[in-house]
Design a protein that fits this description.
Layout lengths: L2 H10 L15 E5 L4 H12 L3 E6 L2 H11 L3 E5 L5 H15 L4 E4 L14 H32 L5 E6 L12 H21 L4 E8 L6 H4 L5 H8 L8 H9 L10 H13 L7 E4 L8
Parallel strand pairs: 1-2, 1-4, 2-3, 4-5, 5-6, 6-7
Helix pairs in contact: 1-4, 1-5, 2-10, 4-5, 5-6, 8-9
Length: 290
């Protein structure tokens, strides 16, 4: 199937969405970076609420393991979000397997902390390609599928949800590559929202707080606790536990953000048909909107 054929196929099968119990009954979703961390937790919550979910992940082994755990309402498609051909193929595979796309969760991301002095151009470019360029590529291709579906049935609404970060709302010391891409992502969200609303495609960003139990933070070799300790991001910190305590103290609700917290924000984005172009904080009060 070509991409043009996928658009036609999705439009012609718009009325054939199966219904399963839950808030997302009849929805077909794609979650990039869906094999671990926030992405896996989000995918699990979407399936629990009646969606069928495509797990898009660069690593095949992780992706297949995730689908095995999630069950028959999930499907794995290998994808590198920084590669246009790979993103286009993801949309084709989603349409081939489930028949269309109603909800796209742009979750894939990487983080490399470091000071301006230490950050290499190569690392900066890698973070930007995945976190910023990748979001653009995903929105570019999935919106074409959604436009075709809308033309077939103008009563339906569609959603593109970027998993952003609290670092997209407030600058982050020794973490500018990540924060800069996330700030830019909110600019993309607002601009995409204005452009795509005629096709009833809503575009929103969710800005989670820190998911301390996930591999992004807790990996003993590459996790952010280790990276931030080594980068001197937390003044006076001598151990990983010092870094963790510093971040826990920043939130009035003294815990980390969870995939369940983020999933609830996604449900809001989908169910609310009078909201688009927003950056929704889910930070336990650590970052509050002005």
């Amino acid at each position: 199937m070509t991409f043009e054929e996928a658009k036609v196929y999705a439009a012609s099968h718009i009325s054939e969405r199966p219904s399963y119990p839950g808030r997302l009954s009849g929805k077909i979703a794609v979650v990039t970076g869906g094999a671990q961390g926030f992405g896996f937790g989000i995918a699990k919550a979407l399936i629990r609420e009646g969606a069928q979910v495509v797990i898009a992940n660069r690593g095949e082994k992780q992706g297949l393991a995730a689908v095995q755990e999630l069950g028959e309402h999930s499907f794995f498609a290998q994808c590198d979000v920084s590669d246009p051909a790979s993103v286009e193929n993801l949309m084709i595979k989603a349409v081939e397997h489930f028949g269309g796309i109603d909800l796209f969760v742009s979750n894939a991301g990487v983080l490399k902390a470091g000071s301006l002095h230490d950050m290499t151009p190569e690392n900066f470019e890698q973070v930007t390609k995945i976190n910023y360029n990748g979001y653009f590529l995903c929105a570019k291709y999935v919106s074409e599928i959604m436009k075709a579906e809308y033309e077939a049935d103008p009563t339906r609404w569609y959603d593109i949800v970027q998993i952003n970060s609290k670092s997209g709302l407030v600058g982050s010391k020794a973490n500018f590559a990540y924060a800069g891409g996330k700030f830019g992502g909110i600019g993309l969200t607002q601009s995409f929202a204005l452009e795509l609303v005629p096709w009833q495609i809503k575009v929103n960003s969710i800005c989670p707080g820190n998911y301390y139990d996930g591999p992004l933070w807790s990996d003993p070799e590459k996790g952010l606790f280790v990276q931030y300790l080594n980068a001197g991001k937390v003044p006076g910190a001598k151990t990983v536990e010092d870094v963790k305590e510093y971040y826990l103290s920043k939130s009035p609700i003294r815990r980390g953000c969870t995939p369940e917290d983020v999933a609830k924000a996604i449900f809001y984005c989908v169910e609310q048909t009078f909201e688009t172009g927003q950056a929704i904080p889910v930070t336990g009060g650590q970052t509050m909107l002005n």
